[in-house]
Structures are given as C-alpha cells and as structure tokens.
C-alpha cells in the first residue's frame, strides 16, 4: 500500500496491490491525511470483497498510514512497514506505481483527473496486462479466479 502524490503535493491517490494476483487498486484521496487514507482503504476493501482475504499489507512509514492498526483490524491481517528510505522492500507496489505513472506522470494534478479515468486505466490497461509471473494471465483474471 502506498500513495501516489500529485503536482505540488496538492492531490494524491491511495494505491493497493494484491500480492497473489498482482491486481492493482487506485482511489483518489480528498486530502492526504491518515483519516482519509483509512476511509478510502476501507472503501477499496468493501467494494472488492477483500475482508479476511488479504494476507498482509506492506507500506512505508508515511504519516498518512498512522491509522494502520484500524486498517489491520478492519481487514483481519497485519500491516508491515518497510525501512525508511527503502521502497525496494515493497517491489510489487513500486513496480505497479511505475506503470501507473506512464499514464499519470509526476506533476499530474489528480484534482483534474476523474476517478472514472483512473479506473479505466487501472482496469483496462494495468490489470489487463498479461504477466509472465502469472503464467501469462492478467491480474484481473487471476484475481477473479482466486478471490
């Protein structure tokens, strides 16, 4: 789990990657606070029927994740933190963020991008990509098979 920050830190998105299927979830944040991150995290979990199905969450130590305990309880799993300044300890989410940034480069103002546009890119491009690590199945298909 991470955040992708927009132009001048005035907008951001919460991103989550499900480990086994590699499915990527992105939702715009109204503000970059722990309360908003918790709220949008719960929205992703509920909308995708993930309660009790997430085996663990890896994130960084940003203050926006300070409500990690509430998120742990909500999804019945554990939150793990990578070491400060070591994003390579969460390679899946960093790789997925790189794919997301091909469509929404650094400097993008997410206040000017609709959730519908983000959903289209995530659902029809990123999650439809055939992945060698999944035996050439898309993340979307793998997610539907396993969840």
From TrEMBL:
GO molecular function: nucleic acid binding; transposase activity
Domain Integrase catalytic: 1-147
An example Gene Ontology biological process: DNA integration
Domain of life of the organism encoding this protein: Bacteria
Alphabetical list of InterPro entries matching this protein: Integrase_cat-core, RNaseH-like_sf, RNaseH_sf, Transposase-Integrase, Transposase_IS30-like
GO cellular component, one term: cytosol
UniProt protein name: Transposase of is30 family n-terminal truncated protein
Organism: Spiroplasma citri
Gene giving rise to this polypeptide: orf3
């Amino acid at each position: 789990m991470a955040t992708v920050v927009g132009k001048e830190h005035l907008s951001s998105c919460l991103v989550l990657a499900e480990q086994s299927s590699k499915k990527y979830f992105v939702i715009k944040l109204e503000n970059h606070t722990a309360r908003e991150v918790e709220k949008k995290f719960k929205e992703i979990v509920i909308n995708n029927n993930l309660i009790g199905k997430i085996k663990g969450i890896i994130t960084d130590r940003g203050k926006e994740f300070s409500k990690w305990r509430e998120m742990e309880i909500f999804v019945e799993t554990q939150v793990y933190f990578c070491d400060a300044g070591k994003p390579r300890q969460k390679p899946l989410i960093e790789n997925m963020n790189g794919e997301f940034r091909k469509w929404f480069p650094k400097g993008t103002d997410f206040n000017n991008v609709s959730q519908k546009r983000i959903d289209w890119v995530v659902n029809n491009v990123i999650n439809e990509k055939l992945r060698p690590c999944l035996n050439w199945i898309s993340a979307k298909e793998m997610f539907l098979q396993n969840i």
